[in-house]
Design a protein that fits this description.
Elements: H1 3-28, H2 33-47, H3 52-72, H4 77-92, H5 97-117, H6 122-131, H7 134-143, H8 163-195, H9 197-203
Helix pairs in contact: 1-2, 2-3, 2-4, 2-8, 3-4, 4-5, 5-6, 5-7, 6-8, 7-8
């Protein structure tokens, strides 16, 4: 088993445990905004490892949980930022340009709100900057039949594309959006590691 596959399996197990823990906590306290944020973040991360038919429903569920957290605390900056990433992900999973643009606009809105709650946060500023490039990237991605592979399973390049074009498109996709998705993953890993260390130890 190569390292990438091993990492995916560990990531899947980690966030699935986090999802289950959040579900259990929700039964006891449905008004815990931190728990709802963790739940939405876990679903977002899991959606990136699914096939296309499973990714979009999981993203919709993540968006629902994060919106629920914001109903409890509308100024929760981490929930706002993760919700922005969920809308970015959903937009790239959507071939229809008008629908995708709506999700990108929502992502920009939530990134801006997150930044207003934490002025000067470099991650939020970078996310807002890169979200402005999402419409252009969406057009490039779907014109070449390339789904953003980091977002969990949109169809890859057609078999008739040259290897050079595949690499060019993949590099373009990664360079523009990959930073946001990777940053989301890194920050979410840290967030969950702090919250679920005892749970992880029991699972090992």
């Amino acid at each position: 088993m190569d390292n990438n596959m091993q990492n995916d399996i560990e990531r899947l197990m980690f966030f699935d445990h986090a999802r289950l823990a959040a579900e259990a906590t929700y039964v006891k306290n449905p008004l815990d905004a931190d728990n709802l944020t963790r739940w939405g973040g876990a679903l977002l991360e899991l959606s990136h490892i699914q096939n296309p038919s499973d990714s979009k429903p999981m993203l919709q569920d993540a968006i629902s949980k994060l919106n629920e957290a914001l109903l409890i605390n509308s100024r929760k900056h981490d929930a706002l930022w993760i919700l922005g990433n969920a809308h970015i992900s959903y937009g790239f999973m959507t071939p229809d340009q008008i629908e995708a643009m709506d999700h990108f606009a929502k992502a920009t809105h939530f990134f801006q709100l997150a930044l207003e709650e934490q002025p000067g946060n470099e991650l939020y500023m970078k996310s807002l900057e890169l979200a402005s490039k999402a419409p252009e990237l969406h057009t490039e991605v779907h014109n070449h039949g390339l789904g953003p592979q980091s977002l969990g399973g949109v169809a890859g390049p057609s078999s008739t594309s040259s290897k050079a074009m595949k690499k060019k498109n993949s590099d373009f996709t990664y360079d523009v959006l990959g930073w946001v998705i990777l940053a989301a993953g890194i920050v979410t890993w840290i967030h969950f590691a702090k919250s679920y260390t005892p749970f992880r130890n029991r699972a090992l």
